[in-house]
Structures are given as C-alpha cells and as structure tokens.
C-alpha cells in the first residue's frame, strides 16, 4: 500500500480545515476560534467520531476513495466527504495531494493510484468502502481510451475483486446520443464521448457478473461550469439521457458523494443539470422524459431513481 499520511500536520493546517468544515455546515458566518483543529473538534462539528478509522469495506468508517482527487471535481468531492466527517482516501497518479489548507490528519490519507495500471489501483483502493471515479483523460495520465474507457473498467474490476460495495463513476450526459450537438462537439476531444459510453457498457457487464451486494452508480453531468454550488433545490436529475443542460462541478461533487452514501442509487444511471438550463439533447426529443427528479435533498430525489434506465 502506498498510502501516505503526514504524521505531524501543522495546527494551522488543521484549523483551516475545521474552519472550512464549519463554514460548510453552519454557513459562511461560522467561525471556529479554537487554537488547533483536532479530531475532537471535527467530531463536535460533524457529529462523526473521526478518531475511529475502520478499514473493513462496507463499515461506516471505511475510507471512501476519490480517484482523480487532484482534478477539479475530484477535489471538490474530497472536500464534500470531509465536510460530512467521512474518512477519505485521496487517490492521484503520483500520490501527492493537497487541499491548499494542508494535511487534514486523521480524516484523510493519500495514495498513488493510476487507473491505467491495475496493480497500483488495487493497492490504492484496498480497504475502501466506496470509490468515486473522478478521473478523466489528461496530458500525463493518458488519453480517453486509457482513462475514460479502460480506466473505468480497471476500477470496476478492482472494486469487484476487492469486494468494495460501491463504485460511483462520473460519465457524461449525451453519451448515448451520437447525433446530438453536445456529443459531436465534445467527441472532437479524442472520441471521449464514444469512449465514455464504452466504459459505461463495460462497467455494466462487469457488475452483471459480480457477486450480489457490489453495486455501481453512473452519474452523467451536463456541461460543467465552475459556478457556485446551487444545491439540490436548483438541480434536476433525470434518466434515459434525453434531457441535458449545464451544471457546476461543485454540484456534481455533491451528488457523487451523496450517491456513494445512498442505497437508493445502487445500479442506477442518472443525469444531473441545473434545472434552469434544461432542454432536450437533440431536435425531435420530447421536452420531458417522465423520469425527472427534483426535490429539496438528493436523498429525496434518489428515492425515485430506477435501475435499468439508460443502459
Ligand atoms: N467538461 C465538461 O463539460 C464535462 C461534461 C460532462 C462530464 N465531464 C466529466 O466530468 C468529470 C470531471 O471533470 P473535471 O473537469 O472536474 O476533471 P479534471 O479536472 O480534468 O480532472 C481529471 C483528473 O483525472 C486525473 N487522471 C488522469 N489520468 C489519470 C490516471 N491514469 N490515473 C488516475 N488519475 C488520472 C487527472 O490527474 P493529472 O492531471 O495529474 O493527470 C485529473 O486530476 C470527467 O470525467 C469529465 O470527463 C466533463
């Protein structure tokens, strides 16, 4: 295992995390004035015993791995998990990862895991309770064939072999609509849409043959933006890949985190976009799919999701 952990995080760095946790949970006016962020402070803020760090897959305190943690959405997903007091394993190709605020001690470890290299990936994911696949093609990491297709399959295979109960993968809206403008424009970048869809299909095949209790969720965001998080009330989930829009990376990060923690998303595929931006993916498609999900919380929206849609 190549996971590393800073044995002596600076009090300043820890306080920074506690402040950010507090701001996320209590609103931006929240200020924590304690001298140093400790596990006890995080427990008080989050209601979660951060001292415990179970490593059995499926137990409440098993770390949740974020693969591609250094990417824009990956980093936000790490923060979303920490905000909820969850143990996180931040997985990057190099094993290096920083939140800017520094190391966060007990709650987070880092590990080197390259999705194109199954041995490093399995080492990085061992003992995790869930995996969030936020990796995508990059200059040094590999093209879409290697990362968005084969990398997804490698992650699915690793999760099945390691007995990790849940894999959540970020794919893309419109992957099943090759005639849509969104597909055509995005696919110019190394056939990424074609390859993401191949990754979805391969993943489904792996899980169809997997032991019961090992499950996946595929999240298909619309066009990504870096705007402020709008939260579930401003979001629409959908199924069937007929409606799309735009969505902030922060909202995508929130939904993948929530999906990993919810049994209602087991073996489902769903789209996510800002409901103000919604529209049919291509001419001739109806304005509604009949699978729209809106609500005040993701858990409420998840409850209506159906398996077998969008395969
Ligand atoms: N852009 C859009 O409008 C849009 C729309 C729909 C869906 N999406 C999808 O949404 C997801 C998140 O997008 P994003 O823009 O937030 O991602 P991003 O910032 O591009 O991050 C991708 C991450 O993947 C990592 N990575 C690349 N190769 C890897 C490998 N071999 N092993 C492990 N990690 C590797 C990269 O690390 P290094 O940089 O260190 O290599 C990077 O940190 C992606 O799947 C993307 O395709 C995007």
Automatic annotation (TrEMBL):
Q: Which domain of life is it from?
A: Eukaryota
**Pfam families hit by this protein:** NAD_binding_10
Positions of the NAD(P)-binding domain? 68-262
> Under what name is this protein listed?
NAD(P)-binding domain-containing protein
Q: What is the source species?
A: Ectocarpus siliculosus (Brown alga)
């Amino acid at each position: 295992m190549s996971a590393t952990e800073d044995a002596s995080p600076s009090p300043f760095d820890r306080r920074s995390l506690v402040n950010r946790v507090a701001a996320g949970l209590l609103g931006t006016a929240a200020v924590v004035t304690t001298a140093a962020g400790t596990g006890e402070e995080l427990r008080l803020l989050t209601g979660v015993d951060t001292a415990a760090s179970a490593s059995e897959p499926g137990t409440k305190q098993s770390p949740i791995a974020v693969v591609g943690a250094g990417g824009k959405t990956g980093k936000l997903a790490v923060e979303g998990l920490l905000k909820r007091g969850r143990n996180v394993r931040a997985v990057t190709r190099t094993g290096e990862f920083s939140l800017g605020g520094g190391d966060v001690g007990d709650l987070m470890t880092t590990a080197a895991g390259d999705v194109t290299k199954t041995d490093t990936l399995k080492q990085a994911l061992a003992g995790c309770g869930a995996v969030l696949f936020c990796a995508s093609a990059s200059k040094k990491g590999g093209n879409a064939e290697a990362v968005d297709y084969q990398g997804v399959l490698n992650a699915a295979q690793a999760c099945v072999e390691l007995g990790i109960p849940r894999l959540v993968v970020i794919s893309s809206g419109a992957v099943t609509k090759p005639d849509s403008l969104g597909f055509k424009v995005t696919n110019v970048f190394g056939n990424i849409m074609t390859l993401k869809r191949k990754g979805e299909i391969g993943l489904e095949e792996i899980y169809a043959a997997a032991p019961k209790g090992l499950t996946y969720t595929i999240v298909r965001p619309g066009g990504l933006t870096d705007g402020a998080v709008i939260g579930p009330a401003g979001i629409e989930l959908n199924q069937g890949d007929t409606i799309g829009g735009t969505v902030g990376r922060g909202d995508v990060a929130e939904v993948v985190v929530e999906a990993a923690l919810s049994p209602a998303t087991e073996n489902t595929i769903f789209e996510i976009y800002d409901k103000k931006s919604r529209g049919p993916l291509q001419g001739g498609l109806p304005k509604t799919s009949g699978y729209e999900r809106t609500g005040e919380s993701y858990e409420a929206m998840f409850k209506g999701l159906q398996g077998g849609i969008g395969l």
